[in-house]
Amino acid sequence: METTSFGFAASLLFVGVPTIFLIGLFVSTSDGEKSSFxxxxxxxxxxxxxxx
Length: 52
Fold this sequence. Notes:
thylakoid
């Protein structure tokens, strides 16, 4: 089956753009895998006041 260069470019962009976007989001987070959902010390806490 023959493919055109347009099809190859479209497939590459279809995979590459979301991958680069997600890697950029991961790198831009300061905590890495830790998020505010699991940690009360991060911004965006689930409760308005921290537990004492």
